Amino acid sequence: SQTIHQWPATLVQPVGSPLSLECTVEGTSNPNLYWYRQAAGRGLQLLFYSVGIGQISSEVPQNLSASRPQDRQFILSSKKLLLSDSGFYLCAWSSRGGIPPGGEQFFGPGTRLTVL
Amino acid sequence: DQQVKQNSPSLSVQEGRISILNCDYTNSMFDYFLWYKKYPAEGPTFLISISSIKDKNEDGRFTVFLNKSAKHLSLHIVPSQPGDSAVYFCAASGGGSNYKLTFGKGTLLTVNP
Questions:
Q1: CA-to-CA distance for B37 and B21, rounded, in angstroms?
Q2: pLDDT tens digits, residue range A23-58?
Q3: Disulfide engineering: B76 pairs with which of A59, A96, B63, B91, CB 3.0-4.6 Å?
């Protein structure tokens, strides 16, 4: 069966510090990978998605970047955090083959980031 | 421009009664719709989905209805249970090779014992 891991679970960082959040998927190959953010009182905002190693698409301009160094590894980074980067970050994967065809996505447990 | 809208931020229902969560969309290219349930500090979990070629899909206590002409879908939970209390997200997909989902802002459902 497939599992998705995210770490750390919680993180408190000062403004201006760097960030690295990691996500790994087990039990599947060639997944589509996604990073979302849920800010307080807001919905799920898609930040980045990747359809393969080294292929990253950005949905919104921001202070963050993403990388996919391996097939089942997705990393969210920042060189200098802003207060507005605080939120709940979620990694998700979906099957490349699209079963079901609408692309059901499976989410990780999330990382709560607080920037002070 | 918000393409998937959940206009009710919260809903309170008595245990045993029906919960109806609504979702509207604006993009006519969407052809697949999903509902996710989310507890605090956890990732969303998939509940039920519906293809645009159908108008109803049922799974146990959960039924999703799709009205394409109105660009509206709804999730019915019958009977509602206290464990159903969570935030429910509506999501839509236009297909394609990358399968991006567009999410609504969610509705907080509270089921009172």
A1: 12
A2: 999 998 889 899 999 877 678 889 999 989 999 988
A3: B63
